[in-house]
Hints:
The structure holds two protein chains of two kinds. The longest helix of chain A is centred in the first third of the chain and has 16 residues, at 140-155. Chain A folds into three domains: 8-176, Rossmann fold (3-Layer(aba) Sandwich); 196-363, TPP-binding domain (Rossmann fold, 3-Layer(aba) Sandwich); 379-556, Rossmann fold. The model of chain A is unreliable at 577-588 (pLDDT under 50). In chain A, α4 (56-70) runs parallel beside α6, α12 packs parallel to α15 (329-342) and α13 (269-277) packs antiparallel against α16 (349-364). Chain A is built from 25 helices and 20 strands. Helix content of chain A is 41%, strand content 16%. By secondary structure, chain B is an alpha+beta fold. Chain B has five helices and nine strands; from the N terminus they run βαββαβαβαββαββ. In chain B, the strands form two sheets. In chain B, strands 5, 6, 7, 8 and 9 form a five-stranded antiparallel beta sheet that branches. Chain B is elongated. The interface between A and B is large, with 43 and 34 residues. The complex binds thiamine diphosphate and magnesium ion.
Amino acid sequence: MARDRTEEISGARIVIQALKEHGVDTVFGYPGGAVLPIYDELFLDQGIKHILVRHEQAAAHAAEGYARSTGKPGVLLVTSGPGATNAVTGLTDALMDSIPIICLSGQVPTFMIGNDAFQEADTVGITRPCTKHNWLVKDTANLAEVIHQAFHVATNGRPGPVLVDIPKDVQFATAPYKTAAQAKTSHYNPRVKGDPDAIQTVVEMIEQAERPIFYSGGGVVNSGDAASQLLRDLVNGTGFPITSTLMGLGCYPASGKNWVGMLGMHGTYEANLAMHGCDLMICVGARFDDRITGRTDAFSPNSTKVHIDIDPSSINKNIHVDVPIIGDVGHVLEHMLKIWRSRGRKTRSAEVKEWWSQIEEWKAVDCLRYKPSTETIKPQYALQRLEELTKKHDRYICTEVGQHQMWAAQFLGFEEPKRWMTSGGLGTMGYGVPSSIGVQVANPRSLVINVAGEASFMMTMQEMSTAVQYNLPVKQFILNNERLGMVRQWQELLHGERYSSSYSEALPDFVKLAEAFGCKGIKCENPADLDDAIKEMLDYDGPVIFDCLVERHENCFPMIPSGKAHNEMLLGEASTQNTIDHTGAVLV
Amino acid sequence: MNALHLKKGSSQHSAYHLKPGYGDENERRVLAVIVDNEAGVLARVIGLFSGRGYNIESLTVAEVNHSRHYSRITIVTTGTPMVLEQIKSQLGRLVPVHDVHDLTTEGPHVERELALVKVVCSDDKRVEALRMCDVFRAKVVDTTLESFVFELTGAPEKIDAFVDLMKPLGLIDLARTGVAAISRGVDAPKE
Ligand SMILES: Cc1ncc(C[n+]2csc(CCOP(=O)(O)OP(=O)(O)O)c2C)c(N)n1
Ligand SMILES: [Mg+2]
């Protein structure tokens, strides 16, 4: 009876209405037979902007870029079968980096499922391990509720990708619309408030610590801007040093006085040695990934470890911690700061000062030093110039995966969260181009640069066509070493200089390629021309492919080889000389 | 030049840290997992175990609350304490999972398993099989002139013992349900 009073609308219409209810303004997608009813509604409605990508993997990465740069969930729409399987890399990437994206996939009609129908794939089966949760909707009456649940699950607790698989007959059939408020989401409600006793304990530890360090990660970005501010307040208040993972760059500003640089495999000497030698480690929204810890049994052997994380499964996974606090970083930091302040803002400042002088000594090693050149462009130099010429801009940086990514993390400074989009957990070459598209769509007036390697760029460069279609002035800054540089580096150091398939052979002429796409192409190979070339890129109002030919055999240092401890770091030639001259065998 | 004693070209170094984790002893645990009985929930649980390389010794599942569609999955697993903690929190992270109970550590509990045992034998062996059946309080649920099917309920060790005794008497087929378990005393998982 109640049903009679409610207007019934088609499943496809329900999809659009639900997206609008969640404030979705943009969908990245690619049409196909199994999603045509939804595309029909997108055509009729006009309220949601659809960005037609050139490959579904790119739809997922663009949605990630959108989500990462705005803090709002990203949405993608793909067809059944190949559409869904193409999205799998992007979903996995979002799962590893805890990025909230919602993938809507078409499916063959319910009565054909299981028959090996045309473009049928077991999408929920395939994506089960690469989503936080997924649903196959078999009845239009459940569709609205499932979409609301999908948004709820993607954005609550530790964020992540979700997928809703919608058979074509479910899109055509009608049912009444259910609002988000009417949807059952009650049982998935991860805890956000931390245990007050544990927080109190940590405050006492802060008061007692002699060699403390904050180690922050992507969880701070995910928790929201307030969390970054609270982290800054706590760090600046206590005067403790802070380092961050690749994913957490920008939460504490790179220009902040307590910043010791990124940690991990290609992190700074001072950050890694401080992690190794600290007596109190406060991990805020990071997960002790193997790129961070190096050899786990030698990881920071003499410290008391505190771990704040919203996901209980991150606790004690790789490293045993002494004080786990399960909760949202923002809530926990707020609570911690309040207690620390109410107890008189105490720290052992004399000892901490001594700790800082030790850190300054490590800093003096100047671990990011490289040998400059006037003949070839050093990749580090290119990034230093890029930094200098763009740091005052309203700027977002994406990257691909490889040496250029690590150099970008080392040489670019991030002052705010959500300004740095990179594939950390999965290390997906091809992430950067589509991600930059998503960022630019969300931030149309900002400067969006993808720091790329030539090999990674070629994995998803078809998206330059998308950039041209939608007037997205993304700047593709390619550090072209004509090598799969990171692979080459490993082969040089660990595989007897046997360079097996690590050349980028038969590369296209990137300037001509740019022109073919309808973008601007710029090529630069002389250090003396670099500034002007970068300015030319910045001045051009449209997408640019910048082919920056760099030194081919440069290695990325510092480096902690896998399975080594933090204090067994390799320094580059430039810094090694320095270390050996001045401090002797610092490196045990 | 390398600052580390790392020989150029030595291949022992991998992109991954190949040493196994802390070498703690393996322990056995019985977990009771309360889940929504929805499509794919068992695949999620099993996929978690296979995907992350956890062991499953046995797994049983059935809906225990028909009105709310809750199923109870009983899992017997083994692992180091660190892995077992991971298993529990990874299970807890699955969206359709309501509750994860570690019956082994939460207090005393009862474990039961049901087995159907087919024995083909004649003469003396037939008499002996029936006597064992009596001792173990098994039931004969099917018989022909040459065969029995016994039904036996008990802790897994009791079933192992019965199966061992039946082997020389002509055991030719065996079906076991895997463990169902419940805590002793007045406590019950909240729903
Ligand atoms: C999809 C994918 N395939 C393979 C790899 C392994 N891999 C990591 S870095 C790298 C080389 C990247 O080359 P390029 O993009 O030119 O960057 P460079 O290291 O030269 O700066 C490769 C092949 C990967 N990370 N992702
Ligand atoms: Mg390269």
